[in-house]
Amino acid sequence: MINSRKYIYILLIFIFIFSLPVVSIHNNKIVFADQNSAKAMIVIEANSNRVLESLNEDLQLPNASTTKIATFLTVLKHCKNLDEQIEIDPRAVGVSGTSIYLKKGEKLTIKELLYGMMLVSGNDAATALALHVCNSISDFAELMTSDAKDAGAKNTIFKNPHGLDENGHKTTAYDLAQIARECYKYEIFEEIVSCKNTKVSNGENDYRYLKNKNKLLWTLEGANGVKTGYTDDAGRCLVSSCKRGKMHLICVVLNCGPMFEESAAHMENCFSKYNMVKLLPAYSIQNNIIIEDGKKAEIKSYTQKEFCYPLTKQEELKVQVLVDEIECLKAPVKRDTIVGEVKIYFDNCLLFSEKIYTMEDVKSNSVGGSIQRIISKW
Q1: Please, what is the Cα angle at 82 between 250 and 76, to 5 degrees?
Q2: What are the DSSP E strand ranges found in the chain?
Q3: CA atoms of 278 and 186, how far apart (whole Å)
Q4: Under CATH, what is the fold of the domain 23-273?
Q5: What is the pTM of this model?
Q6: What is the third-level CATH fold of 279-377?
Q7: How would residue 17 be classed by pLDDT, with cut points 50, 70 and 90?
């Protein structure tokens, strides 16, 4: 009887342990995945743009230096040569807050200023970049607001390029995730925001040594960005990013005290719950198509694009792949003729559609077809 009770107690302990939510351990703190102190947060899977977790995702809030992600995007869109050397405008010298201590008249490349802006959050570097693109901060703020809207930001207004508190300067967790997602389409963005340490020079053997403020780059497997931020109005803010396999997560927390710990916990939770499921392989062979009056009796068809989507095990059961395709064609047939469509549904909502194409040419067997080919060669 005693032994049986002992085994029951052990079993209950194991059930309790394995029923606990995913945890993240950072700076000797244990943070549960369902713990959240942020005023607003979101986790998206960047490839599919699916929202995996969220809270107040459309609540407009100040966002401190995470603004610099949008500044980066506008610079990328409007500067063709990042190796261009620019002279520092005197208006970019002595900007309040975090600085890389730019001097009037010194010259740095756009790329070096981007490193200074993103790794150590130089407000002066952000200002110098803005004044290079536009003649005024207000003009640049309007431009970056417009670029953010093009990237999918629905409720964002920027007043400056650095994120210092200013009346009307607001965005949302959802919008910041969309802006970051757009930035990751540029290789140079990931190269810079995932860099832990570097140095930049003004060409006169005067080096600035830069260390990234994003602690997750050292503590979270697969972390590859993005940007920290803090002001009195915004509180602690973090946009973070992590890649594992084909899954790319972007997490935003706004006004969150333990921003590193909670961001890591949210992403770990999503990685544990979701798998990136390949619902349609690239160049997937579809059905055979019967050819009438052709040199071949039938040919294969195929789709071109791959489609993957983050799903839980339970959600995979709700996926439907429907193929609508022509069964028969009359020769002649040209390669890559559209013959149908594949549609993928999740929970009765259309996720993805892709055309179906013929894989090869088929010449006609008919006399008329032969005469037509002779005439075309003539």
Answers
A1: 40
A2: 23-26, 29-32, 40-45, 50-55, 85-87, 107-109, 197-201, 207-211, 223-231, 235-244, 247-254, 275-280, 285-292, 298-302, 307-311, 319-325, 328-330, 338-346, 349-358
A3: 24
A4: Beta-lactamase (3.40.710)
A5: 0.85
A6: Peptidoglycan synthesis regulatory factor (PBP3), Domain 2 (2.60.410)
A7: very low
